[in-house]
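>> received
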Amino acid sequence: MARVTDAQVRKLWAEMSKSGEVGVAAVRAGMSRNTATKYLRGNELPSQLRQPRTWRTRKDRFEEVWPEVAARLEVEPELQAKTLLEDLMGRHPGRYEAGQLRTLQRRVRGWLAEHGPEKELFLPQEHRPGEAMQTDFTAMASLGITIAGTPYAHLLCHAALPYSDWSWAVPCRSESMAALRAGVQAALLRLGHVPEWHQTDNSTAATHRLDTGKREFNKEYLELMDHFGLKPRTIRVGHKEQNGDIESLNGSLKRHVDQQLMLRGSRDFESQEGYVAWLHGILEGRNRTRGARLEQELAAMRPLTTDPLPEYTEVTAPVHSGGTIRVAKATYSVPSRLRGEVVRVRVYDDRLEVFYAGRLQLTVERLHGKKRHHINYRHVVGPLLRKPGAFRRYRYREDLLPTETFRLAFEALDAALPQREADIEYLRILELAARTMECDVEDALRRLLGSGVLPSADSVRKAVEPAAAEVPILAAQVIDLSSYDALLEEPLEVPA
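>> returned
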């Protein structure tokens, strides 16, 4: 029989007040007359009449060993129920089994709630206007944003004032010091004011000393704080809740951006600049709603008077014998003519700019992470053609296969020709791509492979390079200069 609910009894009381008939009220409330009479005599709902169950419906399998388990928990309250059960199974074979884990977990949790040590509490704090700016990185890949159809994997360096919830953000590629500098600086310039403190979590950008390996503020971060007159502070290691305000605002911002993308009707942008402009428009709209609390923040902060810092750090790097430089634990190729020289490198969050003698030599996308490399085949194909024997075991050979079509072409040559001849043919194709257009060479390789023709360098060249234009032979014309003498002999007419 189904239990009578509180809603049914309320319905019963209401119907009884209307009709005054127990039978009618009982039918309309969906219960028997006897049950209706029971609830009409009293003044309590079913939930108020039920008494909590104080007896067990099943035998407690751990009753005999529980004093022993409790004694262990008193000494080591961090012991997990799984560990305790494994110990019991080992000491009492056949008596306990893995399926009893949930039961033991409930008993351990109940014991800890009554007899365990005190737990740490997260105590809400009141923020003072203009006291601090919090900064954190948040990943945006889940929103599916694309640039010209290509997935745009990026983070936001998100800075916020926890009192008013004002915030600003700039896209970045990693949690680097360059990204943190750009994010903090952009937020301060937008505000035009400076708070007393800047708070961040224990990210490697701010709190890892590479020289000592300790989690202390690093030199670049302290220089950034000193430049803007900010006091640095961070959260305790392993206590993300101390950065809870910015963490909460991260989620709020991402949800808002996601909603605005839905309204926009597309997640694709023509360029990165277009996406940044759109994002900043979204942020401006949000910040306009902060109103009076933002005014209180600005009144409590001092005006920003310092000049902005450059968005890059500059380092020097020797060009090694292989035509490469090492920057931030990653390897990059440079033009071979720079071998043995020392170049200056501007390190941005998303790119490197390489200078020699004050002139820009190349710009390359920055790699993040350890032991990564970017070798541009245009920098090394010339030396490799002069030393083709070095190609086969070249440490960065994978970088010399720029697309899957080039890889298939090399594999076809390698299967059909002797090793040295295959290497030379492929290097000649690569040299053609460096000298002309890679996309044209790739199209020619795709057509040749599709038709079953071995893609030799000569066949690719014929498909890519335009035919030599024929210079027409023109007959030289003889000019009769006597006609000019006749012009001089005619009298000059002067208008009246």
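>> The radius of gyration is 39 Å.
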